[in-house]
Amino acid sequence: MNVIDITGLCKQFTGKRMTKVDALKGIDLKIAQGEIFGFLGPNGAGKSTTIKCLMGLIRPTAGTAAIMGEQIGSVASRAKIGFLPENPAFYDYLTAEEYLRFVGKTFKMPEALLTRRADETLKQLELWDARKRPMRGYSKGMVQRVGLAQTMIHDPDLYILDEPMSGLDPIGRALVKDIILDLKKRGKSVFFSTHITDDVEKVCDRVGVIVKGQLEALDSVENIVRQGIEGYMVQTRLSRGNHEALGGFAVARTNETFIEYFVPVAGFNEFMALAGQHSVEVTLVETKRKDLESFFLEIVGKGK
Amino acid sequence: MTTIIGITLKGIFRDRVFQGIMVTACAFVLIPGLATLSMRQVTELSLTLTLSLISFIMLMLSVFLGGTSLWKDIERRYTFSVLGLPLSRQGYLLGRFGGTALFLLLVAVVLGIAAGAVVAFTASVHPPDRPIVWGTVALCILFDVLKYILLIAVAFLISTVSTSFFLPVFGTIATFLAGGVTQQVYEYIHSPASKNLSPIMKQLATGLYYLLPNFSAFDLKVNAIYGLPVPANGLFLTVAYFVVYVGLLLSFSAAIFSRREMR
Questions:
Q1: Which one of A51, A164, A221, B84 is least enclosed by Cβ atoms within 10 Å?
Q2: Is residue A53 over pLDDT 70?
Q3: B205: which residues sit within 8 A by CB, 6+ positions away?
Q4: Could you tell me if the ipTM is greater than 0.90?
Q5: Under an 8 A CB cutoff, do B7 and A102 touch?
Q6: Chain B, window 240-259: residues with a beta carbon less than 8 angstroms from a chain A beta carbon
């Protein structure tokens, strides 16, 4: 079953002087159970608008969407989600512990379970020492971690996270990545938006790129990475064999011990055969690929 | 909804605006001294001042808590996280309203006890000509609470359509001022003294009379101060008016708020 099912989702905003802005132009997207989905896009592309539609914060102009079979905007659909808004803000007069208890109560968690889960998530998100302090004294990173804690307290099957790494330092980012990977291991589904490709590459199964309200690309990270192989960097020992036989391949770098060739994917077998025939010792083969960022920039470039 | 009521109460108790306004309650200690300026009706003046002070504090609380509760949640982006929880928007709005109204009732109880102590002290030093009818005093405070709960409902309605702080706050103040005189205006335009007024003006005033809240019906100060009897049917009508008016205001507020886009 799909945990998220979006069909033809459109959103038009009316701006000043009644100007119409098409923020979403017919998004079709399905997220499977247990999938970690990265929703990539530049600023203003429509990532948060999509998420706000899913959460019922704004109404789509056209199209439909369901969360685990429940129509978006309904209380029932939100009861199955852990949601982290972009740049979250919580009642700052409350402590982290009080806020988590409040969230747990809205999910009708039993008292004993709520206390146990609140303690666990506070410790996991490294908020234990600050749990009794009002959130108005928290740093941005701490508030972001409270945001993550409140998504996890009721252990939902689906997490919708809008820019979960925003405002976190490298340690915090690593912590969030670990949490997402742990959720994946436990069969949870995560739909998260970001504009940082590195986050997606490390944790996602699939990625969608939205540009100007349209889903321009949708593929598995594995496919993207595989398609992105440009060639190989092959290191050979200078002192062994006849290197003149490899003259048809571009030399990328050389020093007194090694010569490194750049071998395109199509020429790799030929290169290896020639190297074998002419006793050239291959000491290292390194795949050269476009990273997800290049893929993202390419898609965004096309979208523009 | 009860969780929202709980959070609302916690927020108000920790709010600096509330703490500031409650400092005003310290003025109670000045009342016995000030009341002696009357010389002849010391206890009556003491009662007038305490009831007026309670009314003033509740007005401040209604305007600033009622007018800013929803606006603050939207402005500070709390709604994004709270409305992402399995709560209906109507439940959220009613919870916020219920929390603020309940708080007002608690404040009235506390201030009522303080007022009772002040008036009892004054009466012991300067015995009044007429006995103090404590039941009527309590009724006066209770109807004041109803009046300000109604005002909070007005503030919530304005907040559901407003994107700024000014409209809910000043709109609530304007409604309070207008609601205090609608009865007199209505009586004036339906009296011979208004024969020179244009029919359009009269119709407009009559329309506003029905549209705006009528706060004068909730005012039992004179009855409380002079120990006058309060007609039961009048109280019943006022309570019915309160229930219907607040019900309508909250229904409109909920309908508007449930359609509001949280961009």
A1: A221
A2: yes
A3: B185, B186, B189
A4: no
A5: yes
A6: 259
